[in-house]
Structure formats: structure tokens, C-alpha cells
Amino acid sequence: MTQHYISWWNLENLFDIQNSTDRHERLAKSIKNELKGWNESVLEKKLTNLSWVIKQINDNKGPDIFGVCEVENKIVIEKLLAKLNSLNRNYKIIHQNTEDKRGIDIAFIYDSDKYQQEGKIFSLEIIKRNATRNILQAQFITEKGNRLIILGNHWPSRSGGQYKSEPYRMITGETLSYWLKRIQEIYDNKVPILVMGDFNDEPFNRSLTEYALSTGSKKKVSYGKNPYLYNLCYETMGKRKGSFVFNGNQILFDQILVSKGLIHSQSKFKIGKDSFRIECFENMVKGRYNSPIRFGRPSKKSSYNEKGFSDHLPVSALIEEK
Fold it and tell me: Is the whole model's pTM more than 0.90, yes or no?
């Protein structure tokens, strides 16, 4: 069988340098205070630390497909890839700028020796008075000639409180579910779809279970008429593990879900037991709650740590192709 190691990581505000000439004037004004002190040296340290983690994923081979969010533009992703040269991967980038008020986007990095990008990419920004984080879709053809559709997500944050902000994530979950239904109508209901992202909600929250139709039942996904998603994170539930820590609570915001096209009996793909994993290497967490060590930013001295990484841990799924 061919193995596909697919990962996701919220890189926590991976901005270009403070005085970048590639930044739109509107954006430069809106994030001006955040960028204070964000110079070439700081960016270099952040990229070095991130790449140190990425190179250890998949038994030091790096991910085959890697979804990221909170990246400002394609330029910073290219700088990150330059740090991954030792992996000897022919990585390529899929990215689309959005109208997010802080300029943070989703992107995919993929090994072009293993996958061929198929057709156009699709991106949809969820509206909550202003354009906000997007859903990004890309289609790949594997070396064996099978289609694999991947959707990256960065759902609206809990800023203002979990329940006050929850309706925005419900809207996003409903939008995702409709999107999946349209994909299945265009192809068929057994097209393999993998959904990953920072959902800013946990697997049991309503935005995922009631609106995105996420479940821990493979049977429901395989035989249900609606576009249900099997949430691989249910394998981790109850083990007191999370990708994010808030107020001493380990939270599983970063998740990977799959459609029936990846788990039904005739699928070309196979999801094994314990496929989902939270990536945590030496010196990535601290304290009794295993909080991810943030890199932060120089403009906020209380959180800035040049030896840090991100406020999220990466997550991955191992998928086999028959």
C-alpha cells in the first residue's frame, strides 16, 4: 500500500517583515502595531523553529501534504520551504489571498512528486459583517491515479466569548456541509474528501456535530444520505490530549475529518486505527498542562519567546491507498 501522511498546523501569525513592500497599504495600517519589531532576524528565527518541527514529522521525512493557516502570503511560505530543503521534497504551494482584516490565510504545501494538482482551487470567505477566515479547496491526483479532494479550514475565533461567537462557526459549519454536498453532486457521493483545519471548536461542539455533520460513527458516514464526516479525533477523545491550551484546559481545536469516500468498503483508501496523531516533539510544550510554547511577537513582550513555535500543535493523519 502507498502511505499518505497529511498534516495541519496553525503557524500563529506568520507575517512578512514589518516594512515589507509586498503588503497592501490597507493591511499595513490594520496590523501596524502587531508588526513592531518584526524584522528579518525575528522572522528568520520563527522560520527556523517551525521548520525544525516540520522536518521531524512523518519519521523525519516531512508531511506529504501539509495544510497551514495564519500565514500572511505566499512569500513567507516560500521562505519556510527554503528551510525544508534538507528533506529533498519537491514541495509546491497552493495559496490564495483573502480579505481577512489581519491578512492571514490558509495554504497547502504538497509533494509534487507524489501528487498532481487537478484543476482550479476554490476559496470561500465566510461573511460576518466583514470577510473573515476562508475555506480552501484543492484537488489532487495520486501516483496511482486516484482523486483526493482536500479542504482547509480556519473558522472564526472565539473572540468575545465562546457562545457569543458560536453562531459564526455554525454558519461556517453549515457552509462546509453544503459545499461537501455540492462536491458529491458533481462527482459522486463516494469521492474521497479530507477536511482539516483549526475549527476553534471541539469535536463535540454544535458547529461540528449539528452543522458540519461531523460524527464518530463510521457506519453513519458510510450509509447515511447526508454528507456526514467521520472525525478522526474521536480516537483521541478521553485521552486528555489537545492541540491548544486555554486556562489550563487542553482543547482539540485542530482536527482532521474524512468523507465516506475514504472509509466505505470499496474505497481505494484506508483509514487505519490510531490514524490521527498530535505531533509533539521535545521542547515544544511546557508546564503541567503541556501548553504549546508560543513564539509570539516582539510587539508583545509578555508572550515573545524566540525559542518558541506556535500556540497550536500540529496534527496529522496517516492514510493508506490500496
Answer: yes
